[in-house]
Amino acid sequence: MNCQRCKSHRILSIQSKTDDSSFYMWMEGENGWQGYVPSNMGIGGGNNYIEFDYCLFCGQIQGKFPIIENPSELENYNENEYVPEVTVDHHRGN
């Protein structure tokens, strides 16, 4: 497999099992999601598995982007659903 952006062969496949209490942030920390991996985001979805490939050379996540055909589960987030309060350190370096 080669990177869809830069054609490098340095592709890392990520496969991780989470539990249904995983927490995801959306829209710069204004909304959150607790539960299964969100669908339609290019990282797995609808279950407890995060799965995606990314290029170690340019950082491109491999897949079909932009995601515009169907809203992701996070975009359909219902603000009335319970989401536990989570402290996010926005000053932490990436």
Overall description:
By secondary structure, the chain is mostly beta strands. It has one domain (1-80). Helices cover 0% and strands 26% of the residues. It has strands at residues 11-17, 22-26, 31-35, 49-55. The strands form two sheets. It has a two-stranded antiparallel sheet. A two-stranded antiparallel sheet has the order 2-3. A hairpin with a 4-residue loop joins β2 and β3 (31-35). The two termini are 27 Å apart. The model is unreliable at 82-94 (pLDDT under 50).
Set down the secondary structure blueprint.
Layout: E1 11-17, E2 22-26, E3 31-35, E4 49-55
For the record, give the distance between the C-alpha atoms at the N and C termini, rounded to a whole number.
27 Å
Question: What structural category arises from helix and sheet content?
Answer: mainly beta
What global shape is seen?
Answer: globular
Overall pLDDT level: 75
Beta content: 25-35%
Counting H and I runs of at least 4 residues, what is the number of helices? 0
Q: Count of DSSP E strands?
A: 4
Radius of gyration: 15 Å
Helix content: under 10%
Question: How do the strands of the widest beta sheet line up side by side?
Answer: 1-4
Overall number of domains: 1
Low-confidence stretches: 82-94
The succession of helices and strands, N to C, reads: EEEE
Main β sheet profile: 2 strands, antiparallel
Pick out its properties.
about 90 residues; mainly beta; two-stranded antiparallel sheet; disordered C terminus; two-stranded antiparallel ribbon; about 0% helix; about 25% strand
